[in-house]
Amino acid sequence: MEKFIEGLPKAELHLHIEGSLEPELLFAIAQRNNIELKYDSVEDLRKAYNFDCLQDFLDIYYQGAGVLLKEQDFYDLTWAYLEKCSAQNVRHTEIMFDPQTHTERGVSFDTVINGIYKATQDAYKEWGITSFLIMSYLRHLSEEEAFKTLEQSLPHKDKIKAVGLDSSEKGNPPSKFKKVFEASSKEGYIPVAHAGEEGDADYIWEAIELLGIKRIDHGNNALQDKKLIEEIKSRDLALTVCPLSNLALKVVSDLKQHPLKKMLDLGLKATVNSDDPAYFGGQVNKNFIEIQEALGLTKEDLFELAKNSFSYSLLDDETKKKYISELEDYFEAKK
Ligand code: ADE
Ligand code: ZN
User: Fold this and answer.
1) What CATH number is attached to the domain comprising 85?
2) End-to-end Cα, the chain, rounded Å
3) DSSP 296
4) Residue 139: what pLDDT?
5) How many A from CA of 328 to the centre of ligand 1?
6) Neighbouring residues of 334: CB distance < 8 A, sequence distance ≥ 6
């Protein structure tokens, strides 16, 4: 099964680039930027990666992102992630980035996006991996701040495919960002949002009805509400599920309790993703491997999950078809 998963062509649709910053690279970038860390070593830092909830994680994640100052830092971060993609048969990736995490510290929007974007272009040349960028608004900040970010993004519209909503979910409902999502959609950005990770099903309803999202990031708590499940199916919205993240942040107490298989059985379009791989103990293939073991997923389930990752990506139909046909050939040969 492990070999089958490793070779499976796939897309990753839920990945925070700041969450892919491995401790080794974090230390190297801190050193070259003359930033003093409060941890003595990589091992010391890793020991701090022990979370009870989303907020525990976010506190450390924002601290870690604080070493990123220059365009080269964003380039190296993104290149390191895409290099791992190439080794895992990830053919396409949709990368979230949090501009406000950086602009709040005085790093310009241009520095952030130029570094990330250039790495995606070079990775396409090197490995043929296609990438889209999703600009995510931080929901613990105000809608007015999100509007400022939208404004800053406009000169870079050609580099950005979608807008997202992340950070502390509870107490920051989607309704808080209705106007900025409306404005973002008018600019041509496709709306997606984190919903139902820690927040209740109500937050998913709001994200669908008020923000008009085309994909749900996480969505675990959709299973609380039968009517919502039907709504998600009738709108044909996919869920970008992140098993190891859910385990690390105690959204589930055990991977055996994870709702992924239930989602598939209900006819929901789920995908498997790593979220913040440097913090949650594994890249996308490790997420596939561990959830396969925990839930006894079959090769047919894995094929369905990989197919969903292409079908529900933001790619054009022709490129989706190309990737899916490659996946089908693989499945036929290895099933
Ligand atoms: N930012 C980075 N990872 C996140 C997650 N899992 N939920 C919300 N915001 C995030
Ligand atoms: Zn996320």
Assistant:
1) 3.20.20.140
2) 10
3) T
4) 98
5) 32
6) 4, 7, 299
